[in-house]
Amino acid sequence: MASPAIDLLIGKIVSFLESEVSLLEGVHDELHEVKLELLTMKAFLEDAERKGALSEVEKTWVANVRDVSIDVEDIIDEFTYDTNKRRSWGPFTRAFWKTLCLPQNIWERHRIATKLQTIIKTIKDIPERNRRYGSVRIEGSTSHHDVNRIKVYGESSLFLKDDDLVGITDARRKLVGWLLSSHSQRTVISVVGMGGSGKTTLVASTFNNQTVQQHFGCYTWITVSQSYTVEDLFRVMINELLAAAQMDVPQNLSNMSYRHLVEMLVHYLQPRRYMIVLDDVWDTNLWRSIDVALPNGTHGSRIMLTTRNKDIASLAFGVESHVHQVEPLNTNEAWDLFSRRAFSGGSDKSCPPELQIIARELVGKCEGLPLGLVALGSLMSTKRFVSEWKKVYNSMSWELSNNPTLEVVKSILLLSFNDLPYRLKHCFLYFCIFPEDYTIKCKRLVRLWIAEGFVEQVRGGQPEEIAESYLAELTCRCMLQVVEREPSGKAKKFKMHDLLRELAISISEAEKFCTVYNEKETNEERQAPRRLSIQGSSGKVRAHKDMTNVRSLFVLAPKMMASSSSLEKVLPSGFKLLRVLDLKYVPIQELPDEIMKCFNLTSLNLKGTEVRKLPKRIGNLQNLETMDIRDSNIRELPVGIVKLQKLRHLFMYHFNYGAYKSFNSFQGTKAPAGICKLQSLQILDSIEAGSELIKQLQHMTQLTALGLANVKEADEIDLCKSIESMKLMECLTVKTSSVDEVLRMDALLLAPPLLKTLVLTGKLNKVPLWFASLESLTVLYLHWSRSTEDFLPHIHALPNLTKLWLCNAYVGNQLLFQTGFQKLSGLYITNFPQLNLITIEKGVMPALKTLDISECMELKRLPRGIKLLTCLQKLHLHRVPNELVERMRRKRGVDHSKVKHISDIRLFH
């Protein structure tokens, strides 16, 4: 695990050597030598990770390497800090430094060079010390033992009785149907899910079905694992098939070449209907290697595979294929499975009343994961007291690493972690920063990974795109759960399974990656952490007394006391090397002045705080890339903001959650005129725009998201010129200066080609003609448009529109959805004072899943044609006439038959 840390450090050293050459006289050679030594260490560690678990001597070496890499990083961070501090000085101070403080500068470089030379000696001493006390050769015997144990655990599923199985009846019926279907061509059936989700158990239950086995002329079960060779798989397959048919196995099987093995398999399988199970497939290349040996005849042969990787399950196999995603057990099934193990020794085999609460909390920790439920149930079967149960619950990460009963759980989950590319390992561990069941948005996580330096630089690719590919891979490997998706289907919010998070915490503590503090921690005796996550709800939490090593600080305590003293307890002095500071929703009123000395800071999150103003010296933070002041009390940016030339993301809108249907649902923040000089800025959301600023915006062609408030009718020409110049724009929000101000955007000929989200707030006397060019648009929000022109004919043909929000958007009394809206999945209609009729023609909105109608007091009947919306799952009605509600009542309602196909109907009136 030290390998990814070293790789990131090598990248930092290379970047440092390239960008700071003029400042590195006297230390350049030392840094270069450190880089070479680290490259050698990285090669050893990657070899160690491939071959498996380490001996105790080798573990000591890895720990030493990790500590050395931390020391090197500290030196670089300190040197960067001093460099950035000097850059923040004015011309007079810099001149004074050059003339009078030159000896001190030389001494500083000599001090750094001495430190680096000491580290180089330490690096070279590490292997010498290991040679004195033990071999540095990686044997991998422990790893082999782990793999065998996991293989035995998986194949033991073949011998489970139906009485031992819970929650697989429907899935097994589906798989049996695919296996016994009349399709005559070879078919591949993939079963995908996270480690321990019951994939192997489900497939084994299907494989053992007597009807299934009688349907096939031959069948075999092959466990693939991560360390397979194709030739060995073929040999096992041949041995199993011939032994089952009571045929002689060739004596020279172990010496056969790939070609002869393929010929033998094809010769045997060609005339037969066969079923082959490939359990635990990790490699996308496996199919390409074995496909040639599995003949595609017309006998109806079937191949089943289990995998943790969705990319493998969705491969183009070249034949008919099916994919089954294993879902977690529901609450009742999970409780049943856990109880069978935990309380099997009791007289009535049920949970004692005094254990009910803690037992159900422990079951909830497993989130329906069968492996965890079985292992935890076995562990708790010997514990009778509530105190014992609470101890296990509160120390789950320790139990996962140290309790032999849970060893197989850790081993199976650890396989997924060890298989990750080195850069994804840090990304995975990052989730232990956040509390249990914490949901985090994709975009926030991406920005944090970039700020931490986890995202590699790829020529021609934006860091955000690279980071999103990391998220996609973690999701495909079933190591993250998608909680919510964008209208386009792209993942929007994520969370991590509790047991995977516990694994991340145990690894993180061992690797000194992150430390979590809460009100239960004493904090003082522990080593100062690199990343510190302060969690709690009482307001009594505080950080470590030594903050010198902290690079990332998260305060996740939304109920913390709102006072400056609270923040002083959380942020004692000495945190000058911070890179990430996240105080989201912490009710602080001002920032400590020391934060303006954090010259290495790349990400500052003040969203939802009570901070009223940013310090005038904000310009000192010249490495800042992301600043979030949304929903804080900051209403104006200081002039110093224009010095932040590396700033990429600036979030500063203020949303009025209590009046989200009113015209003033959101407001922007005032900014100095020079804000448009920030050429690295990609997101500017949202700004109080004056006429001069709107003119200057046309030079910010790099923007991907822009929010403008206070726009006037007279700004039309300049506004449209600016928007037209932004070819990369994906999200645009425009709001007029007042409720009566007309929003004019007719001068815009074509919308930005990549525009996906459009929010317009203000009176629209005329529907802009460019609406028809919004081919990439997925979300459209028309707020207080009060248009007299029917706008539906202008947007019905938009090919990718999936969500349409209409708030006081039309003054007519009818909405006629006559055609189009083929991809629309969500329609929200609110605050239409005169609306009394909604008509939906046949074939319109065929994909609609959510219909939300509110504040329409003249609408006394359901939309005509609602019965035609066969995909509709949610119908929510807020503040509509009682007459409309009564018509929907079960039994007596005359319109009840029109909505009985809708599973989720909510009425608020």
UniProtKB/TrEMBL annotation:
Keyword hit for Methyltransferase: no
Residue ranges of domain NB-ARC in the record: 172-344
InterPro entries associated with the record: Apaf_helical, Disease_R_plants, LRR_dom_sf, LRR_R13L4/SHOC2-like, NB-ARC, P-loop_NTPase, RX-like_CC, Rx_N
Ranges for domain Disease resistance protein winged helix: 433-504
Ranges where the Disease resistance R13L4/SHOC-2-like LRR domain occurs: 550-878
Matching PANTHER family: DISEASE RESISTANCE PROTEIN RP, DISEASE RESISTANCE PROTEIN RPM1
Protein name: Putative P-loop containing nucleoside triphosphate hydrolase, leucine-rich repeat domain, L
